Amino acid sequence: MSVAALQVNARAMRVNVHAIRAIYTFELARTWRTLLQSIASPVISTSLYFIVFGAAIGSRMTAIDGVSYGAFIVPGLIMLSILTESISNASFGIYMPRFAGTIYEVLSAPISVLEIVLGYVGAAATKSVILGTIILLTARLFVDFTILHPLWMIAFLILTSVAFSFFGFIVGVWADGWEKLQMVPMLIVTPLTFLGGSFYSINMLPPLWQKIALFNPVVYLISGFRWSFYGVADVNVVVSFGMTLLFLILCAAAVQWIFRTGYRLKA
Known about the structure:
about 270 residues
C-alpha cells in the first residue's frame, strides 16, 4: 500500500473531536436554557413519589426482601426518570434539526456518522446521568437507603442512560410530529416501567404473571439496578447486565442502519 493511501486511511480513522464537542456542548447548553423543564420538573415529580409512596404509604407497608418499602422503590423511581428523560432528550435533540432542516447541514459537513451519534447520544446520556445523580441525592432527604455495590450502580446508570438515549435517537428519527415524540415515553415506556417492578417485586406475582413479566425488558434494568443497592434482585444480575448490553447493541445497530439507508434523514 502506498504512503498516500496510508495517509488517507489514517485521516479516515481520525475522530473529529471538535465536531463531537460542538454538537455535545450545543445540546447540553439547551439543558441549561430549559433548566426548569429538563431538571427541576422530573426531580420534583420524583420527589412527590418519595413523599407519597415512600413516607406516607411506605410506613404502613411491610419490608420486601428485608428492605423497607420506601428504600425498595428508590431504584425503580430513579430508573423511571432515567428511561423517560433519556428518550425525551435524545429524540428531541435529533428531531429539532430535522424539523428545522438544519440536519442537512450536519449530514453534508465533513463529519462521520460516529461523530454525529457521539455528539447527540452522548449529550442525552450525560443529561440522564446528571438527573439520576440529582434524584439519588434528593432521595436521601426522604428515605434512608444503602448502596452495597456502588461501581455496579454507576455501571447500570451509565449503560441504561446510553442505551435509551440510542433508543430515543431512533424515536426522534422515526417521529414525524410532536405527538409521536411523546407517544413512546408516555404510552409505552412508562407503563412498562410501572409493570416492571418499580413499586413491587415480581416474585410477589402469581407464577403465570411472573413468567409473563420476564418478557418486559424493563424488569431486567430495574432488577439489576436494585441489586446494586441492596443485593436483592428478581433476575440474576449477570442476566440483567447482559440484557441491558444487548438492548444497547441492538439500538446502536438500528442507528447505524438509519444512517446507511438515510431513513427519514435524507428524504
